[in-house]
């Protein structure tokens, strides 16, 4: 009988695998130092895996099932092997337990095989991943036979037992070889990445942690030039990528066939961890329009240029769809911005109009180049009180760059009238309001961002207000999530949240129902960045609109193409992102696409042809209030 | 090929919307041209010079274009930079002097490059948008009105100015701006005789001119608004200097910039010099 031999063979294999895996850690340990609460992370890791990772994986129940069976079965069987290796603990019924576990794992392995061979999703990578099902099947099948045979005695049992041992050992060897630098490395790196994650706050009770990490402008090298400039736990994250391709499926730039595939981007970073790296071995979709096999680099070599093209870097809209979908919890956008910081601050190499706009921003504190003095030009007739005159107000209305855009000014006018109608006492900074710095920061210009943030915070500290209300989710994100690192802590509320609260209190009186069919487009910086998807919908429902959802909505909404300075870098693709989004809106048959962000408004309204009307939620509400014929709506309100 | 000594003159500009100090965009492009040129010829040096306040923070933006060092001839604002610059540049004896066509501040007459070129005994090529050097022989693309271009060949040493409104402004790199050094040299602070002499008036709002009702077809109206109509005057290709000078004087007389109606070629010549 092989009862004594089998566990020892398995453990020997496992031990050699562990040694090899430990040797692999040098790949990511060559990164820059990072401050990580290691012990707390290791303690929190199982919880992060079972709760946070599961929430992502469970969006595809079939994947969750096969992963639970295959991975759970493998881990459980390895634990059982450890017990079986100790002779006094080797009770015969344990072989039955092992057989049960392996049977479950075999079901999972069959499911993995079916997914790889029968109904294979296009976003999956090939290469080593294609050898994975066989290794799992051999391991589970072979050792299942062995475990069952161990329950019996006799020559037939011995024969089956030996056969099972041979087959299972082959499978195990395959599994271990795939765990060393192959697809199964995600098992080890993934666990460690969860433990030492660069954003531990995102695992705390459904909290979001989306603000960018400030860059120390006094450091010798600004941003990331080479793989080793990334912190080691970031490299660990890239190396944990399992190439499932969920990011590829949701990336707006990839859909528009701009040269960015987030999966390939992370793989580029991971592959560059080995000296003399190239993307020859990569067996998935590449960056659209770029042939595979041409990228080359190494841990100490510059990434942008040889390994990753600059067009790839500047295609990203920072919409965070990839981050939201990633079951390995990789932070793609952080990596993107780290690389951009080096390109912008060290090399000043930005494509398109980005450089000119950043120069205007530095010289005028506005992206439009018109200067803050012109920020209230559209509102001369509305006579909005200025903070420097009133010194305090319950609501500070943050106008943002929308104040310079003719289309977005209509939204702001509707919002101002609604606030008046509701009797809200508010004021703006007017000419004292500088650009919040969102675009500069996403384009990697941390210096200009920190300068603007510092001056805005100094201005805000002079006045007393309870909360900031803004119609621009980008301003909302920056003021709420990114200014605290520079000493500004405010309650910042999006106008849809604020207006929904007013409606709930009934301040607008009866609203005339609007029979139109509407679909709501979630702005990335409101939904994924700040988790607000309910208030705008509640508001639309209160208006009596017939609300239908697009194919992608809520936290999984698709970007309009306007974030992250993408309109300025303007990397060409085969399609335009807003056209793709508008097609999804048109598909719903809605007459109106409701928006809640000035950038989305501009991007979607730029779509030509027959399409739903683009209206901000505030505009729809103001229409309803006006139609409601409330006399007070017009009295005392300049046209 | 030996290295070149390229001097770039950099002034402070003003942003048109906010009035904040900025790089003079033409000077910034001149600097970019100089740095690109120096990169193609080994052993070349770019000697950047500013006349004014060495503490002006915007000067760092020039360093951010990739300049290691910027020499500032320290002088209070309102000083005439010409004497100090002349003295400094004569000592440097550059192969090539590059600068923007005119300043955005102060007198902004655009005369400084001409006066310096004269003092250094250099040829001046104005409005250069393209530059190709072979040995000490330069081939320049010069921008003429209405988008016309002209090829000019000239021998070093020479001066060239970069015209307004050519390709985009290079963004300064924050890191390079931080690394670069500003070297301040004490300079002669002579008051600008012109700025002293001129009469100053307070700014006043002029009545806005009534828009003229334009006649003709859409294309005619467009032409008259954009100045894209028929070219007036005559185009002389390779005229002899006498004919060219006579034409220039005729034109100056026509638009009332000189009073003397010219009779002979010799008197025109003297008139032309005194009027410059």
From TrEMBL, chain A:
* Annotated keywords: 4Fe-4S, Iron, Iron-sulfur, Membrane, Metal-binding, Oxidoreductase, Transmembrane, Transmembrane helix
Q: Which InterPro entries match?
A: 4Fe4S_Fe-S-bd (IPR017896), 4Fe4S_Fe_S_CS (IPR017900), Csal_0991-like_N (IPR021872), Cys_rich_dom (IPR004017), HdrC_iron-sulfur_subunit (IPR051460), Helical_ferredxn (IPR009051)
Q: What residues form the membrane-spanning segments?
A: 66-87, 93-113, 134-153, 159-181
Got a GO cellular component term for this one? plasma membrane
Domain 4Fe-4S ferredoxin-type, which positions? 232-261
This chain belongs to which protein, by name? Fe-S oxidoreductase
**Alphabetized GO MF terms:** 4 iron, 4 sulfur cluster binding; metal ion binding; oxidoreductase activity
Q: Coiled-coil region(s) at which residues?
A: none
Q: What is the lineage of its organism?
A: Bacteria, Pseudomonadati, Pseudomonadota, Alphaproteobacteria, Geminicoccales
* Top-rank lineage group of the source organism: Bacteria
Claim: Nucleus is one of the keywords in the record: no
Automatic annotation (TrEMBL), chain B:
Does the keyword Transport feature in the UniProt annotation?
yes
Q: Read off the SUPFAM superfamilies from this record.
A: Adenine nucleotide alpha hydrolases-like
Q: Which Pfam families match?
A: ETF
- Report the coiled-coil segments: none
Query: Where in this chain does the record put each Electron transfer flavoprotein alpha/beta-subunit N-terminal domain?
Result: 24-186
Q: Which InterPro entries match?
A: ETF_a/b_N, Rossmann-like_a/b/a_fold
**Key words, A-Z:** Electron transport, Transport
Q: Reply yes or no: does the keyword Electron transport apply.
A: yes
Protein name (database record): Electron transfer flavoprotein beta subunit
